[in-house]
Structures are given as structure tokens and as C-alpha cells.
Amino acid sequence: MSTLDTTSGSVPQTARLTSGLGPKSSSRAIKDRAATVVMWLAFLIAMVPLVWILATVVMKGGSLLLHADWWTHSQQGITNREEGGGAAHAIQGTLIQAAMTALIAVPIGVLTAVYLVEYGGGRFKRVVSFMVDILTGVPSIVAALFVYAVWITTLGFDRMAFAVCLALVLLMVPVVVRSTEEMLKLVPNELREASYALGVPKWKTITKVVLPTAFSGIVTGVLLGLARVMGETAPLLILAPYFRSISTNLFDGLMGTLPTMINAGRDNMAIEANSERVWASACTLIVLILVLNLLGRLISRFNKLDR
Amino acid sequence: MKITRIGRVSAVALVGALALSACGSDDNSTGSGDSTGSTSAGGTGAGAAGGDAGCGTKAITAEGSTAQDNAIQEAISGFESVCADQKVTYNATGSGDGIKKFIAGQVSFAGSDSALKSTDGKTEAQDAAKACGSPAWNIPMVTGPISIAYNLKGVDKLTLTPALLADIFQGKITTWNDPQIVAVNKGVTLPATPIKPFFRSDESGTTENFTKYLKGSAAAKWAAEPAKKWAGKGEGKAKTAGVASAVKGTEGGITYAEWGAAKDNKLGIAQIDNGAGAVELTGESAGKAIAAAKVDGQGNDLKLKLNYATKEAGTYPIVLVTYEIVCSKYKDAQTAKGVKAFLNHFASADAQKKIEEIGYAPLPDEIRSKVSTAINAIQ
Amino acid sequence: MSSVTGVSVTDETPDSDGRDPLPGDNASTGRLGDRLFGGAARGAGIVVVALVTLIGVFLLVQAVPSLADNHENFLTSQKWDVSDADNLGFGIARLLWVTVISSVLAMLIAVPLGVCIALFITHYAPRVLAKPAAILVDLLAAVPSIVYGLWGAIVVGQYFEPVQSFFIAALGWIPLFEDTGASAASTIAFVSVVLAIMILPIVTALSREVFAQTPTAHKEAALALGATKWEMIRTAVLPFGRPGVISAAMLGLGRALGETIAVMFIVSSLPDGAPWSWSIFNGGETFASKIANNAGEFDSPSKTGAYISAGLVLFVLTFVVNAIARIVIERRKAFTE
User: Which CATH architecture has domain A67-306?
Assistant: First the structure.
């Protein structure tokens, strides 16, 4: 992000320089002009789906979000044909699962990053770093199958919301590792040196000096990681079917979430009341993810370490 | 240290958001009059349920078939006026899952598109009886007609026979104006549009029942064994929603789908001629297929055997029956009361009539009386 | 920074002073706290390595019994019949082809577009627009895949019909563009377009990162020689960024390979015994969509095993693609350092 500032700042300067270098042949000028047009076009093309999706979601379901009931009631006792009820059960389920996922993924992720930056060396460090990259690329459906194979087939548990959290942990850990790692690297070595010079042991230096300095950056990374896993649907399909009433127990029974609410509602898209609810859930999900993203960016703005 | 504080503030905000959302409500009783009028509503509904005492005090959970989801949600919604304080939840996770949970004792009753099996090396019935400590009963509750839905501009009335269906869904008849189709649709102008059959790509009870029908009524044309997985030709789409919307968007498309989905999507619905003339799909004509079914179980176990090849006039033969699987004697008296109250409401003429509007066929009276005898015998 | 995409190609570059972080070993006194904390950090690293290993091992262990009972050739058969535990017959030929072609196609669309957008953000956009533009493209990553699926299947699909008809009319004689009669809103080609939109933010973010790092000296040198802006980009920025773009493409490909819900919502599946076709205007199922579509029916170990074996192949596929991306990044580092 910040690297971008420096370059976009320097380019106009250099560009101004070139204009003084005499005339250019017309075909080269045309090519240059064409390239500029193509770049603008590419950006505008990318904006089409974004605007289209957001407009669809807001127009088809946005109005439901303005009702207080949407945020405070579940779908218990509401049929597909009836208006009313809300998505409280699903919003709550999504947030609870996200919180549980973060609770497990953040310590693993931060500690792994600490290992990579502060402790690691040699071959094992490279193996860990490589594995983090591989984990980044593990498709959510594979993570879900893995948890299914362990949790349900091997350990014999039922499908439950907690199993989803385990699958999401696999997806969230690499994001946390990478962003934390980046932040830790930005902590000036002078801070560490000063701390060591005062005779502070290494672990205290890390926990009292390095991690607090990088704290807001790490929080940003965690929020972005959460935003990434919250919209995941594949693990939910395999590990925790939809539930239309409020349920807060991760370890027993089913739990509704926004993605599964959308998936369940998709069966009756021809019914007006139901289809509006589906788009409204989609809208809510996007809003939740955007809020996390914005929060992350806001916090990163206070981050003194950002390059 | 300023940084740390900002981080903390954000963490507090996140926790706060969580806490805020944690106070949602499951109470969706409609209308403001409900809170004051609940006693009187309970009074009028008491004929069936026997007042508050008959509702049981334990929340009822059930799980299973997706085919009856819309029907049972409607019944749950209506049940609020009978037993205002009783909470019933139903999870449509599939028949197999429902039976599994029932056998594990995790749900009060299960919804299943097929009765408990006790043959072919399967021991569902025995396992369920063991879990209950008493025989488990299959109680037919929801009749879901499977419609043959099509999309053909200008054709409002279309008749198909089992043999034609078998050929169409195996890709042997490929255009709508095929002489064989024209022969049973005299007086209808059929276009030369290619036929595009759609099938369910996920394994489904609807596919199983439809292929049972094809096998039962046109065995010469349909060779494949009935199964949850589609064995014919065509384009596969996920779930009922997938096939229904595909037909809606495809000129010349045809599929088999729950009646409700065909109605919601405003698709053409073909009449079926099993040999005794074309029969339109209505609640009554589908109900006749249930009335004509043989009860296969013993006593109050109302396992039905459908006759797909029925030639009785006015009977729509392609139906799917969803059973509620219950214990004949519950270990917990309150659960028994709750299940009885809810199922009695579900089987009432009123509730059955309501589900007809959303694409199910009401149980015919003679079956309904057997059903309510069985429900009342639950202990 | 790694922003919404969760991946970065510049992670491993040394800090601003070009120094490696302090080893700090001499500060470690072997005290209990140090041993505990160091051990915990190392333990977390071990957990990560163990997780990836376990994914492979568990999938393999659960897939083996079904693979042993499989009477079809797993790699070349087009059949998928797992309903009868005593007569398993499944192969991944179709799944593999559809998965690979849809992802590659998505990559072919997303990479040129993403590179252009990255250049736009780093070099063409007016200064006030650059940052908002980057955020807007990142927003595409904030839309969950289920919403893409819903939007693609219900809203956009119908508009793809003329595009498909055009290609079939013009290039229908090539097997890749053959007309199979599948409706436009449910073909591999259409899902590739949706997938391309989904991986666009990844490709853009990563390309942006490397383009922004092009040494100013290189660019100024090109401009000083009289190059136009486009020539400067072609001669200085693109060559510098090439490894980054390649790894961005690979990471995007990895994402597309594993995409589930959108594919499941959009693409039609084919019945058993449908004739083989190379056409992208055909239906089909990817590994991920096949598994997710049948997740409700995992009722016997042999059936589950068959789907897990498909998941295993997908895992291996993404592993290879991501490993290639990683290797390209490593080589780039060796080049820049």
C-alpha cells in the first residue's frame, strides 16, 4: 500500500521530464496513447462486475436490512412464503464461528510468525515458510474434507459448528502468519538491540517490545484474515447444515450462518419473500466482511510501522 | 503504547458486536394480538391438542427429508396458535441424516422419504426400535407429487405417457414435435424445438421416486434400477432450485420436480396418461394415488406401498410420500406429548389443506384417519 | 502488504536497510521463560508443518480402501458410480479436465486484465485515484464466493448467450468450441468468466506489489533514453515484474482450482455415459463442486472414500501449483538481491 504512494508520486515527475526530450515518431505516440486507453479500460472493466454485484444485492435485499427485526429475530416459525423474521441466528452463528476460529488461529499464527522472524533459522525455517505458502493455497473444500476425515470419520463425532471452525482455522492461519511476519520484520532492530542491551531476556523483548510495537499491524492482519474466512461456504456445506433458529452452542446441534442461510434459501428463489431474504443475507454478509476490512484498514492507518 | 490502546479498543468493539448480536430472539409470533389472544387461541385449538397440558413441556426437535421442508415449516408456523409455548424445530438435512440422528436418540422424530428398512442387510427398523425401547412407526404425513415441468412457448396443455417420459429422459425422443408425442397430444400444435431434459445432479429422493415410477410403469423402456442417482440422460443441476430455474430459462426444457417448485416458477405441468386417460396434477388426483396404496406395515406402522402403474381413472401416479418416524412409546412422557400434539396438528384437515396451496397433496381421508389413530396411540 | 488476498510475493524481501533481523541468540540466556516461549514458537511452526502433512496423510489413508475396491481406472475412467459399496467404479478423467480447463481459462482472462489494472494503479492513474482504485479492486475479494455464484447463476447467465453463440458460430469447428447444446448460463466457459472475476483481485494485488517495486533508476534510465511511457513500462517495469506476475498467475490458478460454490451453482453436470467432449461450451463438474454437491450423501465409508480420493487429487494439484509459484518467487529473490 505504502510502496504505491512513493511510486505513484515519482512517476508524474519523471513523466514531466520526458516531455522535454523532443518529438517522438507518430506510431510510437499512438502506441503510447493506445496503451493508456487500454489501462483505463481494464480498470473500468473490472468495475463492471463490482458495481453490478453490489447493485444487485442492495437493490434486491438491502431494504430488509433496515428493519430492526432483521438484526434481532431468527427464522423460527417463518415459512418461505411469509415475510418477516430476521437473520439474527445466522449473523450470530457467523460471528461466533469467526470468533472461535480466531481464538485458535491467532495464537498459532502469531507464534509461527514469531518463530519465523525471531527464532527460526536454517532448513526448518524454510520448511515452515514453505508449508505456510502451501496452506495458503489449500482450497476450502479440501480443508473441509480433511476435518471431515478426522473429526467425523476417524473420531466419530457428529457434524457440528465447531468442526467448521477447525476447517476455517486451516484457512486463517496462513493469513495471520504472513501479515504478522511482515509486521515483525518492520520492527526496527534498534528496539531489540536497546532491549537486549538492558539485559532483558529474548522472550520478554518479544512479548513486551516487539509484539506491542507491531500490535496494530497484527490486529489488521487478523481482521483481514477473519474477513476472508467468514464468507467461506464449502466447509459449512460439508460440516454443519443450516439451522433456522438461534443456537449458540458450537459443540451440540446445528448452527445457522449467513452462507448456509443463502444456500438453503436458494431452493426457493421463485418465492418473492424468500428470495428477498436470500439477497438480504448476501448483503448482510458483504456488509460484515466490509466492516472488518474497513476496521482493518482504519487500524493500519494508525500503524507507525507501515512502510 | 498508543498503538496498543487502539488495538484494544478495536478488540473491545469486536467483542461488543458479538455480545450485541447474541441477544436475538426466536419469537416470531405474528401479529400483535397474539400475546393477548394466546389463551383463547389455545382454547379453540384444544380440541385436538387438549390445552396447554397436552402440548408437553419439552422442546421438540426433528430432522430429515428436505422434500417436506416447506410443508413442515408451514405446520410449525400454524402450530404456534395451538401450543404457543411449545417450540418445534425441523432441520432439513436429508432423510439419511434424519434416520441416523433418530437412531442415535438425538431427535424426537425423523422425516424420511422412505420407510425404515429392515431388508437387504439394512437394520434401520431394528436399530430405531432399540433406540426407542419400543417399535418405531412410519407415519405417512406429507404427499409431495412430482410434477413433470416443461417450458414450451404456446403450449399450455401437454400429455405424456410413461413410455414417452422414459424415452425423453433417455434422449431417445429429441424434438417436441416427434410423432410419438403428437400422437397422444391431438389438437395441440407442438413446435420443432429440441427437447432439453434436466435432472438432479445431487443424489435425491425425488430422483429415486421418479425412476421408481418409470421402472414401475414402463419397465420395457426404462432398464436402470431406481436409485437416488440419475441414470438417464440430460443436463444435471444441483437441487430442485437448479432444475426448476434451468427449465424456466430454457425453451424446450423439461424436468421432474416437486410440484411446489413448478408452481412457484410458473412452469408448464404435463398431464400424465397411465393408460386410463390424461390426468391433471391436483391435490385430489395425487391424493388418490395415496388412497390406492397398500398399507405394508403392521398395526400402526403405516408403511405404504405405492402402485406406480395404477390405471385407475383420475389418479396422478408420480408421488413421493414423506414419513414421520416416531417411537411408539417414548422414554420421556413430555416428549411424547409434544410429538403427539404437533403431529396431530400436522395431520389435521386444516393443516393438510394449507400445504396444498404450496404444492403438496393433502392426505386422503381414509389414510388420515389411520394416521390419527396411530398418532393417538403414541405413548 | 498482504491485504485481502492473504498472499504476498514480497514477504521474504529483506527489510529497508537490507539487513536480516537480529538473530538475538546471544540475548537468549537459557532461562525458563526463554525456553518456554522459544519452544512455543517452534511448536507453532511444527503445528503448521504437521497440519499440511496430516491433510495429505488423512486424505490418503481414507481414500486408499475405496481406491483398492475401485474396479475402474481411477485416472482415465469417466464413470462415477459409488452408490453400491460392493461395486465401486469411479474415475476422475472428466473432473480433472473440467477443473483444469475452467481454471486455466479463468487465469487466461484474469492475468492480462489484472496486469493492466496493476499498471493502471501504479503508473497511469492520477495520484488521487490510485489508492481508491486499488481499494475498489480489492473490494472484489470481499464478495463471498456464494454471492458470486448466486449472481452468476441468476443475474448474469442470460447475458452470456450471445457471447457463446458468437464463439460457436465463428470457431465451432475447433473441438474446444464445439456446440454441445448446453445452455449458456451453465457452461464451463461462463464459469471461467466468473472465476476470472474472483481471482482478479489476487492477480492485481500481487502484480501491483512487484510493479511498484521497479527500481526508479531503471524507469528513469528508460525515459532518459527517450522512451515513451508505454516503452518504459515494456522495457523496465514488465521485465522486472515478470516473475511476480507468473507467481501471481499461479496463485490465482490455485484459487480457481479449488473454487467450490460458484462452480456448483453455475455449471450443469453431465449424466453418466455422456459422450466425451473437449468443448468449453459444455457442462461438467470440478473436483470441488462434485464433492460439495454430494456432501449430504456421505453415508458409507466407501462412498466417502471415493470423494476423499477426488479431494486428494485436488490437494495435490493445488500443492503443485502453489509450489511452482513459490519457486518462481524464490528465484526472483535470488535475482533481485
Answer: Orthogonal Bundle (1.10)
